[in-house]
Fold this protein.
Amino acid sequence: MKNRKLGRREVSILINDIWKNRTFSSGETSTTMGEYIVKYFTDRYHLPLLRYEWIYNLYYACQRLVYDDQIGLFWDILWGNVTEDAYHVPRKEFNTLRKMMEMRMEDQKINALLAHDIMDVMDTMYPYKSNRDIEILVYAAAKQLGIDPSTEAFDVVKLFAQTEEGWERGELARELARQTAQEITEFGKAILHSIEVQDKSSEVALETLKKGFMEVDEGISPALLTQHMKWIYKVQDLSKAKPMVSSAIVRQMLNGYIRISHPVKQRKY
């Protein structure tokens, strides 16, 4: 088979196209990513040799470029180490944020937004974020557009414009991803603190962790809590769950994109 020696940009474009087709294809998300990739290349290349050649080249390139955030996420989802929600949920929220900014422009009958407008929209979208986090997001958006946020307006269309490589590579999307990872980590630490786990090497039993979740995330539904426990402890039968090291619990929460379901509104300052 031919080694196409795919570069980072080529792999990024290919992965973005796979995601686009998987997202838009009805019922496709019911299959695993591995199964979908076979279908994706089968639909495009009827010659088995060419099909397997592309699968091999994607596999080989992802291994080489796994350090890249976008490619690394795809690779981890492919192997089931990270939930697909880690891709789909941020994308949906990103689209919601775009629509909220467009509505703001329609209401004011303008074609661009100033920094205070952007902050207002983000404050509505993310009431649990601090003013500092919102400001950082605004500066990330300004950096992406190459403007001075104190004097220039934000071109919303340009800010959310899709590229061949996907929406994840922009400064705004990257900062949102960084903040989300930090929020999940803090959520995990708060849970462990609530059940008095201080040592990263301490083992935590499932029932104890459930208690911590319910204390920190008040009102979490039993179904969602069960879903979280199955992911964290890597079992379908919770009666078979073995105690897990606390540091691994936080890592599993990150991999499972487990966020607080009832975030507390931040005190703005």
The first helix runs from residue 8 to 24. Residues 8-81 form one domain. The two ends are 60 Å apart (CA to CA).
